[in-house]
Every structure is written in structure tokens, then in C-alpha cells.
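Help needed: design a sequence for this.
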């Protein structure tokens, strides 16, 4: 017995040692990729802890980073790089940074613990607005970024169509039926959320094969960093052709979504139907074989949709039934769902409906994402989710829009209040951004709130540190610029449709595009002052150049709005000379914005298109297919003039001059034509102009690429950056 016990203890020690070695090796690999010049100067140690923790200290000329696992070690490394080396590792592979030649020392050992267990990241929409065309090199760097920022619960929905293809064809559907049921690649998030079917299909088989291989790499690497990838599960979404094979199944055609015709509406299998559990089990077993599982599954039944019944008993019954099918497929399953629906359809999701829906099965087998907390904390509206575990999430961006938005002070206030009053079921912090935007520091700040150190609670101190990280050193002008930005520019949350007027289909009076909000809640002169201070900073860092470009882009875009208001006044007075002068000025601003954003790879539509075409391999037909899908999402969103037109607008080089600029040119031409005829630009003239613009928009996304293959990522000199700053008005 003693020998057996000794053998058991020895085995436990060996397994623990192997685990420690694995964590240390993963952390070493991270340093090799992001800070190779320091890899012989940084040593990682595993430290025992029941909670996530890291420790930094300098010994014998080396920096020692200890942590309970690879994820915590990665956060410790990031803390060292940011607060000792003044280096900010961005979320994109192209985001470069410079590390000090002489590695800094940690003057005094510091130990920092996690304040929450879970750190969630991503949104279904991010896989359409930002990541649809990524290959492994982009994903590898991004997973490193997530580890550096402590993410341990990433949404992992790449490649699910590859699983569904296997499931549906094995159940009797044809190859053509299944691939036609899927949408185009960048629209897949809304297919996955039961919003649209068939639009932009059929998906090429090469896409399904490539995505399967990519997802296997993604999930494997995420698990190396102690992350639990949130995989998809069956939410009742089926091809309508399934009725041919199962004619007695209770399959309902849902209402059309967001202006799409009925032919693209989704079909829903009633969870009470016995076929539901069959599909659930088959999908999860197939998925687990190919991608593994950490037993956390994302299922969202009624996102931006109306349930078949609002009766509380029905809502309780349907959620319990879905959970039971999940548990039958995986006894350790945890159901994660976003609670965007409780905000978006808040008129209907009253507490007498929310409570039975989320409490009809065990609380410890689910996890809720409080999706848009900077605008509305649902935990405040629902008695702390009635005890169900939840994660406080910062959304921050809709559609990948490029606007300076966010509010550090308010996020700090809201999160600290949640720590104090959010209840014991407050379990984590996350971000649910729809697309990567031009405010990356907002998300880094949110994830820093998950760790217990003082700087992020002192906004001025955190701002100074962030300014140092963006320019690579302490710089008085950069610090003053960023203090102005944090105090006066970052003062409001993101809302759908926020974009510069340049990006909005032009008109007089009320905007005709549903998602159109160019308004700002600050004085543009303040942004000018911050930009001038930033110009005086001494830095050649990529982050500094990005920030300077980003600020000037916004500055000129805000100025465009002010000039247009003067143009409207001139039109009202029929002052043709002033109108002509202001038209020329506005077109000049558009061209200047386009030239400005060309200096940054993040702002190149050519990269977006080139990346999309790369999935076509040697097939010109597939290259064209992927390019059209990529162009469509960021412009008209569909092939009709509908609700989501311009929703994903972004100020990118190649869009500003060839798409938005062309629309403004057409608008000016039609206004001038009306005045030449001695008439006002009335509704009839507007309708003619609208039809012409709609035709142009369709042509833009359907035409072959004129520049994508030849597009090069290059960084131009910023020496002439201040050309138009003197033009800025309130």
C-alpha cells in the first residue's frame, strides 16, 4: 500500500512538473515571437496558486516572471513590456513596436492577482467585420495579444460550417443544398445567429476545408495559453430543405431580418421536437472530434428575433429543453449566451420573462454576457441576473466603424461599482466589439481592470503610462495630448452608425441612411489642440504614427461636417459662387483624408480586398467571389438599398476617394443640375440621384479589383501632416 501511495505521489509530482514545463515552454515561445531580443534575459517560473496571479522581479541580470499558468505569465510579460519598457504590443501582426536596447530592471518585486475568473473576448460579428479573411499568421499574433491581455474565454466560431457540412450531408442533404444554404464568408456571423440564409452562397468547398484546418490551429494554440475556447452548438437553425428528409419535424420559417427579402429568412427547428436533440448530439460529437472541447458552448436562440411565444412558461420550457439537449450531448456542458436581446428588445424582455428564461436550468451550467455595459448594464435591470453567473462586457464598436469613441472615466466608474455591488455571481470582464476599430487602447484598458493593481483606477496616472507606451518613452507633449484626449474627446460610448459625414450617403436635411450619426460630443478645436501637441512629440513608434494619423483623420472628418453646414446655408441662399468654392474644399478634404489614412496598413481597403482574394487560391472565379463579398459588407451590406446600407462604414484609403468621394461628387452634380434648371433639389431630383448612387454602389462592389493585387503596405512620411489643420473650425 505504501509503495502504491509513493508511486501515486511520484506520478502526481511528475504530472505537475510536466504541466509547469508546458506552461513555461508556452511562455518562452511567446517571448520568442514578440520579444526575441529578450528571450535569454527573461525567465519564467510556475508558482502555485488557486487563482490567477503573476509576479515580476529582477535577479542576476534577468527578469523573472512567475505565474500560476501560461496565461498569467503572458499577462506578467505584457505588464513588464508596458510599464517598464514603454512598449505596446498591438492586436494586429503589422503593429510594430520598439523595445529598449538595454532591458529595464524591475526595481521592486511586484505581485498582481486577477480580480475575476473569466476574461471573455470577441463577438459573432467580429468574425465578419474584421476577421473573415485572416490566415494563420494573423491569428497567431492575435492569440498572442489575447494571452498578453489575459483573455481566457475567447469566442471560437471559425470553421463551424465545415462541421455543419458534415452533419447535414450525413443526414441526407446534397452538397449543393448545404453549400447554398450558407451565406458568403463575411456574412456568416448573421447566418450563425439565425438572421439570414442563402445570401451570397454557395460557399466554395475550398473555403470549408481551409476554415477547418484554421480552426484546428486556433483552438490548439488557445488551449496552450490556458484559454477555454467557446465553441458553437445547435440553436435550432436548419436548412429549409431538411423538411424533405424529415417531413414531420416542426420546422418554422422565421420572419425576414433587417430588410432582407423573405427568400433569405431562416428556418427554425422547435427545441421540443425530438429531432433537435439528435442534431445537437451529432453536431457536438463531430465538432469535438475535430476541434476538441472545453465544454463551453455559445447558443443564442432569439437574437434580434421574436420568439414564437412571449408566455413565461414557454420561455422557461424552451431554454430548459435546449439545455437538456446540450447536457445529453456533453454532460459537462456550460451554456454561454449573449444578453444583447435583453437590451435591443427591452420593450418585450421584461423581468417576468427574463427570469424564467434564464433560471429554468442550473445557474452553474450557464454564463451570461452583459453585452453593452457602457450603455446599459443589464445586471442593474434584472436583480443581478437573478443569481446566474455573468460577465461585464464593454462593446465599444459597431460594424468596425472608425470614430474616436469611448469613455475611460465612465468605464472605470461602472466597473468599480460592479465589483462593489454586482453580486457574487459577477464572474468576469470582457469585450464584445463588433469589429476591431481605431481605439485599441480602450479594450486594453478594460482587460487591465481584471487585474488588481492601482494604476488603472487612477485615470490620470494610467493616461500618462499609456502615452509613454504609445510613443515609446516619457514625452511631456504626448502626455498632455493624451490627457486632453481622455478628458475631452473620449467622453461618450459608441452607438450604431457612428461615422464621419464623409461616409454617409449625401443629402440635405435629415439623413436618408438609417445608420447615420456623424455627431460628436466635443469641440473640434480641442482635438486640434491635442493633435498639435502630438505633432510636437518626439517619436518614431508605429503606435505614435497610428495615433497621429487617427487623430488627424478624425479632425479633418469633423471639419468636413462644419464645411457642409456652410454649404447647406449657401444652397438655401442660392449662392452658387460659395457653393462651388465649398464643393471644391470638401472634395479636397476627402482626398486629404484618403492620402492621410494611406500611411497606415489598418486603414487600407486594398489589404481587406487582397486578403479576401487570397482565399481563392489559383481560381480567378473564387478570387472574384471572395472580393465581391468583401466589398459588399463594408458598403451596401446586401444587393439592395436596405436598412444596413453603410452600417459597416469605415474611413479607409480606397473607400474615401473611390466610394464615398464619388457619391459626394454625384450629389454635387445633381444639386447643380437642379439649380441650373432653375429648380430646387426636391424629392424628384433626390430620387433620380438616389437611383444613380444605388447603381454606382452596386457597381463598386461587383466590379473586379483594380488595385488589390498590386496594393502594398507602406508607411509614408508624416512631414506634411498639418497641411489643413488651420482650416479647422468649431
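Sure. Designed sequence:
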Amino acid at each position: 500500500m505504501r509503495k502504491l501511495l509513493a508511486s501515486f505521489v511520484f506520478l502526481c509530482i511528475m504530472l505537475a512538473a510536466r504541466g509547469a514545463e508546458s506552461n513555461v515552454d508556452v511562455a518562452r515561445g511567446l517571448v520568442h515571437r514578440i520579444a526575441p531580443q529578450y528571450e535569454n534575459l527573461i525567465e519564467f517560473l510556475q508558482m502555485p496558486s488557486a487563482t490567477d496571479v503573476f509576479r515580476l522581479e529582477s535577479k542576476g541580470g534577468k527578469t523573472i516572471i512567475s505565474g500560476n499558468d501560461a496565461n498569467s505569465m503572458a499577462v506578467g510579460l505584457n505588464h513588464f513590456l508596458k510599464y517598464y519598457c514603454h512598449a505596446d504590443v498591438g492586436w494586429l501582426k503589422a503593429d510594430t513596436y520598439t523595445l529598449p536596447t538595454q532591458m529595464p530592471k524591475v526595481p521592486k518585486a511586484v505581485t498582481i492577482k486577477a480580480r475575476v475568473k473569466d476574461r471573455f473576448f470577441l463577438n459573432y460579428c467580429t468574425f465578419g467585420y474584421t476577421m473573415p479573411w485572416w490566415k494563420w499568421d494573423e491569428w497567431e499574433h492575435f492569440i498572442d495579444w489575447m494571452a498578453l491581455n489575459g483573455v481566457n474565454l475567447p469566442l471560437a466560431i471559425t470553421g463551424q460550417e465545415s462541421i455543419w457540412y458534415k452533419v447535414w450531408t450525413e443526414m441526407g442533404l446534397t452538397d449543393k443544398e448545404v453549400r447554398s444554404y450558407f451565406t458568403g464568408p463575411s456574412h456568416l456571423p448573421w447566418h450563425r445567429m439565425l438572421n439570414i440564409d442563402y445570401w451570397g452562397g454557395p460557399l466554395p468547398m475550398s473555403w470549408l476545408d481551409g476554415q477547418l484546418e484554421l480552426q484546428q490551429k486556433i483552438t490548439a494554440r488557445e488551449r496552450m495559453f490556458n484559454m477555454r475556447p467557446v465553441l458553437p452548438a445547435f440553436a435550432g437553425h436548419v436548412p429549409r430543405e431538411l423538411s424533405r428528409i424529415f417531413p414531420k419535424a416542426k420546422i418554422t420559417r422565421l420572419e425576414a431580418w433587417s430588410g432582407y427579402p423573405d427568400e433569405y429568412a431562416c428556418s427554425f427547428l422547435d427545441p421540443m421536437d425530438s429531432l433537435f436533440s439528435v442534431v445537437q448530439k451529432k453536431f457536438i460529437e463531430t465538432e469535438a472530434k475535430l476541434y476538441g472541447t472545453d465544454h463551453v458552448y455559445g447558443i443564442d436562440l432569439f437574437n434580434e428575433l421574436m420568439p414564437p411565444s412571449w408566455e413565461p412558461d414557454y420561455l422557461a420550457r424552451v431554454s430548459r429543453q435546449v439545455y437538456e439537449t446540450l447536457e445529453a450531448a456533453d454532460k459537462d456542458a456550460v451554456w454561454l449566451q449573449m444578453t444583447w436581446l435583453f437590451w435591443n428588445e427591452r420593450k418585450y424582455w421584461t423581468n417576468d420573462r427574463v427570469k424564467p428564461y434564464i433560471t429554468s436550468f442550473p445557474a452553474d451550467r450557464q454564463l451570461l454576457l452583459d453585452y453593452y455595459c457602457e450603455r446599459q448594464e443589464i445586471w442593474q435591470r434584472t436583480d443581478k441576473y437573478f443569481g446566474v453567473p455573468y460577465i461585464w462586457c464593454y462593446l465599444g464598436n459597431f460594424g468596425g466603424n472608425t470614430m474616436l469613441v469611448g469613455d475611460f472615466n465612465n468605464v472605470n466608474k461602472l466597473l468599480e461599482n460592479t465589483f462593489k455591488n454586482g453580486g457574487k455571481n459577477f464572474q468576469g470582464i470582457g469585450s464584445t466589439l463588433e469589429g476591431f476599430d481605431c481605439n485599441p487602447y480602450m479594450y486594453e484598458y478594460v482587460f487591465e481592470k481584471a487585474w488588481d493593481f492601482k494604476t488603472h483606477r487612477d485615470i490620470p496616472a494610467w493616461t500618462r503610462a499609456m502615452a509613454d507606451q504609445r510613443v515609446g518613452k516619457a514625452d511631456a507633449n504626448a502626455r498632455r495630448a493624451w490627457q486632453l484626449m481622455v478628458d475631452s474627446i473620449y467622453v461618450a460610448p459608441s452607438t450604431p452608425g457612428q461615422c464621419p459625414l464623409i461616409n454617409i450617403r449625401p443629402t440635405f436635411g435629415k439623413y436618408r441612411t438609417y445608420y447615420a450619426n456623424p455627431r460628436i460630443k466635443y469641440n473640434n478645436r480641442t482635438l486640434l489642440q491635442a493633435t498639435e501637441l502630438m505633432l510636437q512629440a518626439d517619436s518614431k513608434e508605429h503606435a505614435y504614427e497610428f495615433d497621429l494619423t487617427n487623430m488627424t483623420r478624425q479632425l479633418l472628418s469633423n471639419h468636413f461636417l462644419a464645411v457642409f453646414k456652410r454649404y447647406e446655408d449657401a444652397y438655401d441662399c442660392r449662392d452658387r459662387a460659395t457653393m462651388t468654392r465649398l464643393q471644391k474644399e470638401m472634395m479636397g478634404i476627402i482626398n486629404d483624408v484618403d492620402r492621410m489614412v494611406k500611411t497606415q496598413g489598418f486603414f487600407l481597403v486594398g489589404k481587406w480586398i487582397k486578403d479576401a482574394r487570397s482565399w481563392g487560391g489559383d481560381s480567378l472565379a473564387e478570387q472574384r467571389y471572395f472580393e465581391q463579398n468583401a466589398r459588399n459588407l463594408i458598403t451596401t451590406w446586401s444587393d439592395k438599398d436596405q436598412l444596413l446600407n453603410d452600417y459597416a462604414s469605415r474611413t479607409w484609403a480606397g473607400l474615401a476617394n473611390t466610394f464615398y468621394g464619388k457619391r459626394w461628387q454625384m450629389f454635387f452634380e445633381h444639386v447643380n443640375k437642379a439649380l441650373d434648371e432653375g429648380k430646387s433639389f426636391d424629392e424628384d431630383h433626390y430620387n433620380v440621384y438616389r437611383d444613380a448612387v444605388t447603381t454606382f454602389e452596386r457597381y463598386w462592389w461587383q466590379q473586379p479589383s483594380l488595385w488589390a493585387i498590386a496594393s502594398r503596405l507602406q508607411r509614408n512620411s508624416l512631414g506634411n501632416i498639418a497641411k489643413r489643420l488651420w482650416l479647422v473650425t468649431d
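The radius of gyration is 27 Å.
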